[in-house]
Amino acid sequence: MTSSSKISAVIATYNEEEHIRECVESLLPVVEEIIVVDSFSTDKTQEICLELGVKFLQRPWEGFSSTKNWANQQASYPFILSIDADEVISKELGTSLIKAKQELLDEHKVYKFNRLNNYCGMWMRYGGWYPDTKVRLFSNANAIWEGDVHERLIFDYPISEQLLEGDLLHYSIKDKADHIARVKKYCKLEKAFSNQFWALLSAINTFIRIYILKKSFLAGRLGYQLAFISALAKFWRGKT
Length: 240
Hints:
Elements lengths: L6 E7 L6 H8 L5 E6 L6 H7 L3 E4 L5 H10 L5 E4 L4 E3 L1 H12 L6 E11 L2 E3 L9 E6 L3 E4 L5 E4 L4 E14 L2 H14 L6 H18 L7 H17 L3
């Protein structure tokens, strides 16, 4: 493998001791460098990262895009694997990544993964939560993150996409209280409607789409909970 196919993994953290070890350990066989940019965690995040030998940097939080762009500038290698602290590279995805490197990564491509989300202890394949495909591997020379709430990658020139086999495992929602807390947080950051009537219609549509059309009912009680809280989020966004 040439240096042009080497990867720097980038992770932004704040109090991520629950999942950061599993995240980093899944990356160790796959990438040449792991960079953790931490916003001064008060738990054992730093201790765990230093034990595992990552490049650990601390920086005040300035939003997702700004933090990730700064982190990418610290990378030693030409390709970036952007991953969250509560995400884990599955064995199958790790094998696909190693194979892609051996075949030489292409700076004119981005590489995307299917993400499998863990909802309240269940790997959720219903309700539109799977495959939840994300672009996570890209050339550091031609990409930049934009947006503060739902950041996205912007590229300097046209690129093609390649889907790699295997799942990116995401420990998304811990329990019902965690789901509601996250909904409230994002509702404060974005408003989608100007009145409660349209918010109610959107909430009903969301429930029907997730529970029936996207078949979250197949997940039993948790499938109903997922659809109901997602619909509630749509309604709350319309409250003024």
